[in-house]
Amino acid sequence: MLRLHEYRYHRPARLADALALLREHEDALAIAGGTDLMPNMKHRLFTPRHLVALKGIAELRGIGLADGAGNPVADDSPHARELVIGAGATLTEVSRNPLVRRVFPSLAAAAGKVAAPQIRNSGTMGGNLCLDTRCTYYNQSYFWREALGFCLKKDGEVCHVTKVGRKCVAAHSADTPPVLMTLGASIDLASANGTRTLPVADFFIADGKANTVRRRDELVHRIRIPLPAPGLRTAYRKVRQRNSVDYPLLSIAAAARLTPGSGVESLSLVVSALGAKPRMVSGLDKLAGAPLHEVVDAAAALAFKQCHPLENLIVDPDWRHAMVPVYVRRALEEMAVGA
Ligand SMILES: Cc1cc2nc3c(=O)[nH]c(=O)nc-3n(C[C@H](O)[C@H](O)[C@H](O)COP(=O)(O)OP(=O)(O)OC[C@H]3O[C@@H](n4cnc5c(N)ncnc54)[C@H](O)[C@@H]3O)c2cc1C
Ligand code: SF4
Asked: What integer is the mean pLDDT of 60-82?
């Protein structure tokens, strides 16, 4: 049996109190649903002396429309400019929310494909954004890792994937961030010193050791997604070993704005679960103007060229690489139906 270490559990009722606790205790970590953190603590990947529970904080809950400054407005308000999702919203809530399903179906799909129903009932959007990167040599018990001499992400000196170098290439394995990137979403990051807003695309960095720019004393407060102009189509595709419960081995998020008669106005494509950071495929602007079904192969070829899977997950990287264009095609063909 894997036992937890001793720690103190704090249950703040207000965001300000949670932020103060994080500032006060240097070895404190936030816990939301605990579906990622608890297994990691049992593996001794994290041993915080203080846990700050976010579940009781009302300011982190809710999904609704807002004006461009994040102030809530009614669903039929002409001033609605963005959809705001609290970091404490569960994946089940996001996947079932009628507004999310209608306006951003790829986000509802991605949230609905995380793990399994019980985990989605507890797991939150904030936890999904801050999910630790994953690797065959890291997500193991202390005993297992010790037998191998640990690795440089935790307790050791070498990377068993690259064998050389000082960089961890563990995989970003969360389902919703790639979709949020294609939708141009941003996040409000709160700390005891105030709040900063940054695009989800700028939240991630290519370092598997800690792959976000979030400081330890900062919390994701909420996610803000601009309401799209008419003609937006979106899709999310995920490769995993078992459809009932598994992390992605490869994921593809796509969004395109189509204008009747003049084809693709804009197209964005994010490929993830390969390296530490979701990869935004570049060069897609050259495909603008053509009907979507005519650019599928070119977009798939660009994605294939720009992605380079490593042996960080259990499945053969060459196979995962070969699947990139297959799943890009499937996502874009789904969006092209009836266009
Ligand atoms: C069997 C299994 C399968 C899984 N499959 C998938 C999958 O297919 N896809 C997937 O994406 N995930 C998967 N997960 C991981 C996890 O369930 C989800 O990513 C979930 O969204 C994590 O949310 P949580 O609230 O439980 O996070 P927690 O475990 O509470 O926290 C995770 C991390 O985020 C930090 N954190 C949490 N909330 C905030 C916040 N508001 N601000 C700042 N930091 C915060 C915590 O400190 C911790 O470091 C799986 C987990 C399990 C156990
Ligand atoms: S990629 Fe290398 S350093 Fe990172 S977790 Fe895996 S083995 Fe460790």
From this structure: 95
Element housing 336 (H / E):
helix 317-336
Average pLDDT score over the chain: 96
Domains of the chain in sequence order: 230-339 (3.30.390.50)
Please answer whether residues 238 and 206 qualify as being in contact, where contact means their C-beta atoms are separated by less than 8 angstroms: no
* Partners of residue 237 on adjacent β-strands: 252
Q: How far apart are CA 233 and CA 267, in angstroms?
A: 9
Instruction: Identify the residue whose C-alpha is closest to ligand 2 atom 2.
Output: 159
β-bridge partners, 86: 222
> Pairing state of beta strands 28-31 and 8-10?
unpaired
- Taking the centre of ligand 1 as the mean of its atom positions, its distance from the CA of residue 296, in whole angstroms, is 33
Residue 299, H or E segment? helix 292-306
Q: Which of 27, 43, 119, 204 to mutate to test the pocket of ligand 1 (most atoms within 8 A of CB)?
A: 119
103-136 pLDDT, tens digit each: 999 999 999 999 999 999 999 999 999 999 999 9
pTM of structure? 0.98
Closest C-alpha residue for ligand 1 atom 3: 115
**Ligand 1 centroid – CA 33 distance (Å):** 7
Q: Alpha-carbon distance 302 to 122, whole Å?
A: 37
Distance separating alpha carbons of residues 293 and 26, to the nearest angstrom: 53
Closest CA relative to residue 49, chosen from 2, 1, 10, 3: 10
- DSSP state string for 92-123: HHHHH-HHHHHH-HHHHHHHHTSS-HHHHHH-
Residues with CB under 6 A from ligand 1: 29-37, 39, 54, 87, 91, 114-115, 119, 122-124, 126-128, 130-131, 174-175, 219-220, 245-247
